[in-house]
Amino acid sequence: MSRIARHGRLVAHEGHGAELAELLLTAAAGLEGEPGCELYLVNRQTDAPDTIWVTELWRDQDALDAVLETIKGSPETTAAMKLVAAAEMIELDLLGGKGPTPPTTDPA
Questions:
Q1: Residue 54: other Cβ atoms inside 10 A
Q2: Strand ranges across the sheet with 84-92
Q3: pLDDT tens across 62-105, in order?
Q4: Kind plus residue range of the DSSP H or E element containing 88
Q5: Measuring CA to CA, which residue among 83, 80, 60 is closest to residue 3?
Q6: What structural domains and CATH numbers belong to the chain?
Q7: Cα–Cα distance between 58 and 77 in angstroms, integer?
Q8: CB 7 within 8 A of CB 55
Q9: What's the pTM?
Q10: At CB < 8 A and 24+ separation, what contacts does 73-78 make?
Q11: What is the pLDDT of residues 24-74, one digit of tens each?
Q12: For residues 36 and 60, is the Cβ–Cβ distance under 8 A?
């Protein structure tokens, strides 16, 4: 299986960008122990404070699907989506570059 790379763009209702960003940062913290999530970055667009970008890198589609199933319909997801006026997810083909490397296992 191959890694899954995605960019999400979420535009909050006017004046709610900071609140949306905080909810997404809380979600990111919740992914700390999730081995299938290799990268989850929350960014605010400099010239549009209500526009939040999320950059994701997942071990594989199964790992992403498992997390999505877990959060579907959760109170946190519902609260975040109430703040969103528009959203899009861009699926990417990861070709390479500099970034996280898979964890190494100790043979001992």
A1: 19
A2: 37-45, 48-58, 4-12, 84-92
A3: 999 999 999 999 999 999 999 999 999 999 988 888 876 654 44
A4: strand 84-92
A5: 60
A6: 4-92 (3.30.70.100)
A7: 19
A8: yes
A9: 0.86
A10: 76/23, 76/26, 76/27
A11: 999 999 999 999 999 999 999 999 999 999 999 999 999 999 999 999 999
A12: yes
Residue keyed to tokens 């905080």: 22
Angle between helices 75-83 and 17-30 (to 10 degrees): 150
In one letter, which amino acid is 76?
A: E
- How many residues comprise the chain? 108
Amino acid in position 14: E
| CA neighbours closer than 13 Å in the CB half-sphere of residue 73 | 2
